[in-house]
Amino acid sequence: MTSSRTAGRGDSPPPGGVRIPFPVTDEVSRHCLGDDEPETVHIEVHLPGRLDPERLRTAFRQALLTHPRVLVREVPGRRLRQSFAWELTGEPDCDPVEFPPPGPDALARARARALEECPSLALSPPMRLEVIEGDGESAVGEVPEAEGPGATRTVLLLTMHHTALDAGSGLRVLATAAEQYSGSAAVPVAGPVRMGPSGPAATGGTGRAWPVRVAPDSRPGPVRARAVGNGMLQAELPVPSRAGRPGGLASWTVNDQLLVAASLMVGRWNAAQGRPAGPVRITMPVDDRPRGRDMPMGNGTRLVEVAMTSEDPLDPDLLRGERPDPAAVARLLRTTARRTRALKSARGAPLGLGANLLTAPLLPVGIRGALTRGARRAAAPWTSTVLVTNVGRVPYALDFGDAGRAKAVWFSAPARMPRGLSVAAASTNGRLHVTLRWSRALLGDTAGADLAGLFAQSLSATAQVAHPDDTPRADPAPGRTRSTQKDPARPS
Q1: What is the pLDDT of residues 257-315, one digit of tens each?
Q2: Which of 60, 228, 414, 471 falls 20 to 30 Å from 39 in CA-CA distance?
Q3: Angle ∠(247,251,256) on CA atoms, nearest 5
Q4: Minimal CA–CA distance to 196: which of 345, 348, 346?
């Protein structure tokens, strides 16, 4: 079903009224939506200068028209219909750019809205861009030396409905808006490079054991049960150094270090809460899309699970201590690197064959929704421990002309129960910008801050190991752990 209306701008977007059936990822997300945990993705871009409001509105609108796939709204229908569908509108239904009143807590309020107020799927585009001006203080409370305390800085905070769009799509739209705003030509952006697996392609396993859950905090159970929404904490960390093989090749990637750090964080947190050890499994999105203007919009990642199991049966005890043993950390990094290379080079359905079966248009969407939610509840014990999303080095300049280039980029992914925790990372200007996001039904803000401190310590531990071939194997006495690592920084 189409109409003759066209956008009339951009790179010849399709006419309004074109309908696209929901992909598997979108339909599963749509079936499982809940008011208590909004399905949002948030992206923050921090700029050193001030943006012209009308010029930015024009640039962002042009970016939307350049990527017409983001100009979608859900086609309304009855529960007995056979499928969900997006309608390409060709033009925005409303202006998604907002300028909240400035103030000392303007950014904190915008972040809270990003976690609590999901953009409507009934309006195109399912996103909003808030522009927050500050007085020179960064998101982590530091005053940039170059600008000083009297300078005006700007934060672009993009909130998207994750049923429709993901972080990669949002970053691409912001990159196009920057090009339009500054008038600069688009710089070719290389796509992701995947290395084939080296050695055995085994991706690890935990048998039939259930993945360990992140232990809830010490609040009374009824208090946690009444808590709704997500909490979030952002940190700026140094990019961890990596051990190199002879010849200069890195033995593992920063992404592997993030996975190991998340595993160490969970193990140490659960030990502090008096929980028994168990296998940690991490869900990791893999994005194989090109990064240029032809990048497909929507939810373009596939989810894989990485088993964070050690190759030595003694390693779990060595890793759960306050000072993880460097030799055990090196071994876990080596096996994790082997597994992630195999998973990234493989191909498969975005959510697995089970999701494909649940979303097959053989039954009305209302019945498929009930089955999907039931399957999700039944599969809860096998849900992975934590979601770790890493976009790596941000591939775009995000240069807004006289407002400057992005100095920091943060983003976050939903943290719905039963997993209840997500870690997101991006690298900009040689710094690692990490966001921990948690379900308030699992953790309170104090516990979330403690967990973030543990993550920073754990990431530091991954940078303080030698090349795995040169790392001696630890041989502790039974029931004891040994560590040679310096005490990392305490949680802030």
Answers
A1: 999 999 999 999 999 999 988 899 999 999 989 998 889 999 989 999 999 988 777 77
A2: 60
A3: 155
A4: 345
Block residue for tokens 């945990």: 37
* Crossing angle for the helix pair 167-182 and 53-66, to the nearest 10 degrees: 120
Structure tokens at 8: 């009339």
Per-residue confidence (pLDDT) for residue 474, from 0 to 100: 41
Q: Which is nearest to 481 in space by CA: 336, 270, 269, 268?
A: 268
Average pLDDT across the chain, whole number: 83
- For the purposes of burial, counting CB atoms within 10 Å of the CB of 274, is it exposed (0-12), middle (13-18) or buried (19 or more)? exposed
Closest Cα to residue 48, out of 407, 359, 333? Answer: 407
pLDDT digits (tens, 9 = 90+) for 398-447: 999 999 999 999 999 999 999 999 999 999 988 999 999 999 999 999 99
**Which of 7, 17, 127, 11 shows the shortest CA–CA distance to 66?**
11
| Mean of pLDDT values over 173-196 | 82
- 393-422 core/surface letters (b: 16 or more CB in 10 A; e: else): ebbbebbbbebbbbbbbbbbbbbbbbbbbb
Cβ contacts of 14-19, under 8 Å, gap ≥ 24: 14/68, 14/88, 14/90, 15/88, 15/90, 16/87, 16/88, 16/89, 16/90, 16/91, 17/87, 17/88, 17/89, 17/90, 18/87, 18/88, 19/75, 19/85, 19/86, 19/87, 19/88
List alpha helices for 273-409, DSSP H.
315-319, 326-345, 353-358, 365-378
**Domains of the chain and CATH, by start:** 19-182 (3.30.559.10), 221-392+415-470 (3.30.559.10)
∠ CA 61-1-16, nearest 5°, is 10
> Residue 371's CB: how many other CB atoms inside 10 A?
15
Confidence at residue 263, expressed as pLDDT on a 0 to 100 scale: 96
Q: How many CB atoms lie within 10 A of CB 6?
A: 14
- Yes or no: say if 251 and 471 are a contact pair by the CB < 8 Å rule: no
- Is the model's pLDDT at 121 over the cut of 60? yes
- Give the torsion sign (CA, 165, 166, 168, 171): positive
pLDDT tens, 122-160?
999 999 999 999 865 444 334 344 444 446 699 999 999
- With b meaning 16 or more CB within 10 Å and e meaning fewer, what string describes 277-310? ebbbbbbbbbbebebebebebbbbbbbbbbbbbb
